[in-house]
UniProtKB/TrEMBL annotation:
GO terms for molecular function: isomerase activity; metal ion binding. The keyword Metal-binding applies. Gene3D superfamilies: Divalent-metal-dependent TIM barrel enzymes. PANTHER family: L-RHAMNOSE ISOMERASE. This is Sugar isomerase. Keywords: Isomerase, Manganese, Metal-binding. InterPro entries: L-rhamnose_isomerase, L_rhamnose_iso, Xyl_isomerase-like_sf.
């Protein structure tokens, strides 16, 4: 039996206000899709099977480099975070996994597993952290971690990743995500080739400890915290890493880790075409690694990413990239942001499923540019909300995510037992 944090009667009462309208909206959209030769139920079933992992660090109030304003009822530890993730999962019915970050979430792995399974949650990729120093560790990562010039520092970073694999084995993760902040701040500070060689050597040791059924994801990021050069700075370097390491190594694409206007959907296509697309950190951005809510700035781009994913999926039934959110929330309730983001990612998936791939291909082959572009526009402009809402409703989730969450008064309730955490205690970059 799965425990529910939000009283199911609250969800039922909220849904009761909306279910007749939802049925009408769903049927009417179904009719219109029928005319396009699309079965709405088939789309809904795919949407219902879609899952996206919630990052444990996302349910806390992040803050910026300048300040952190604590929110009421913030999680005190990873066990509170798991409860917040359970709320998101219960209402969205789309996020039944959590992605942990070590050492932020360090706790007895058996307890972690128990805490999550109580709510029917599992664990997605586990994230290592060698971009910040950990209390009690001898070496500092000030000048790098897996790629550091100092061998003892590299060794400590390797051991941290091995520990993450061990924790992951107990809690049921099947992948390790490695993002490093290594790079340089001044021309001449490092030798690019030697630094990358160190990184590859370290990663080969980590790779050799991966269980057979695990994957390792490496995450590229153009800059920050290193501002002149970054070791894993783009998808090209990321691809080289995945190739060097072997079959269990894949690239992870965090949408915020590219220069503005970069054609991310094309990067997605390239990596998928050559079998090295492992997964995503979804978020949105206007300028850099802003970690804004997925779909909040450029929903069309999110759709175009899913257009590529569905294209691959339609040819390769085994294609299963990991979907994770990676956001930081400064001015919103993180639970609300994460619920809406999960639903926006799902929305892009549903819209991409509406693209008539055969007709699109035919238009492309005939160089009928506008017909091809129109296929994407028509799919993107379709309001698929009734599909998402019906999928949630049928699975016991909330038709209206925000209204139901607010009606539950969850935040006010936990605020009574979770004191406000002092400023500056965020573990978020
Ligand atoms: C780095 C990053 C990476 C980290 C997370 C906290 O910017 O995207 O995924 O693990 O943020
Ligand atoms: Mn990320
Ligand atoms: Mn990031």
């Amino acid at each position: 039996m799965t425990d529910h944090i939000i009283d199911p009667s609250v969800v039922e009462a909220e849904n009761a206000k909306l279910s007749t309208d939802l049925r009408n909206d769903y049927d009417s959209l179904g009719e219109r899709l029928d005319r396009r030769g699309i079965s709405i139920d088939a789309i809904k079933n795919k949407v219902a099977a879609f899952n996206i992992a919630v990052p444990s660090w996302g349910v806390g109030t992040g803050g910026t480099r300048f300040a952190r304003f604590p929110g009421k009822g913030e999680p005190r530890d990873i066990f509170d975070k798991i409860e917040d993730c359970a709320v998101i999962s219960q209402l969205t019915q789309a996020t039944n996994t959590v992605s942990l970050h070590i050492p932020w979430d360090r706790a007895d792995p058996n307890r972690l597993k128990q805490a999550a399974s109580r709510f029917g949650l599992g664990f997605d990729a586990i994230n290592s952290n060698t971009f910040a120093d950990e209390k009690g560790k001898l070496q500092s990562y000030k000048y790098g971690s897996l790629s550091a010039a100092d061998a003892a520092t590299r060794q400590q970073a390797i051991e941290h990743n091995l520990e993450c694999i061990d924790i992951g084995k107990t809690i049921g993760s099947k992948a390790l995500t490695v993002w490093i902040g290594d790079g340089s701040n001044f021309p001449g500070q490092v030798n690019f080739a030697r630094q990358f060689e160190h990184y590859l050597d370290s990663m080969k040791t980590v790779y050799s400890a991966l269980p057979d059924d695990w994957r390792i994801f490496t995450e590229h990021k153009m800059y920050e915290p290193a501002f002149y050069s970054t070791v894993v700075q783009d998808w090209g370097t990321n691809y080289l890493i995945a190739k060097e390491l072997g079959d269990k190594a894949y690239c992870l694409v965090d949408l915020g880790h590219h220069a503005p206007n970069v054609n991310i959907e094309m990067i997605v296509s390239r990596l998928a075409q050559f079998g090295k697309l492992g997964g995503f950190h979804f978020n949105d951005s206007k300028y850099g690694d802003d970690d804004l809510d997925a779909g909040s700035i450029d929903p069309f781009r999110l759709f175009l990413v899913f257009n590529e994913l569905v294209d691959v999926e339609s040819r390769d039934a085994d294609f299963r990239p990991a979907h994770m959110l990676d956001q930081s929330h400064n001015v919103t309730d993180p639970i609300e942001s994460l619920m809406l983001s999960a639903s926006d990612v799902q929305r892009s998936y549903a819209q991409a499923l509406l693209v008539n791939r055969n007709e699109l291909s035919a238009a492309q082959d005939a160089n009928d540019v506008l017909t091809a572009a129109q296929h994407l526009r028509v799919a993107y402009r379709t309001d698929v909300e009734p599909i998402l809402a019906m999928s949630r409703f049928e699975k016991g989730g909330a038709i209206d995510l925000l209204a139901t969450y607010r009606a539950s008064a969850y935040r006010a309730q936990v605020a009574q037992i979770r004191p406000e955490v002092a400023v500056g205690s965020s573990g978020i970059v």
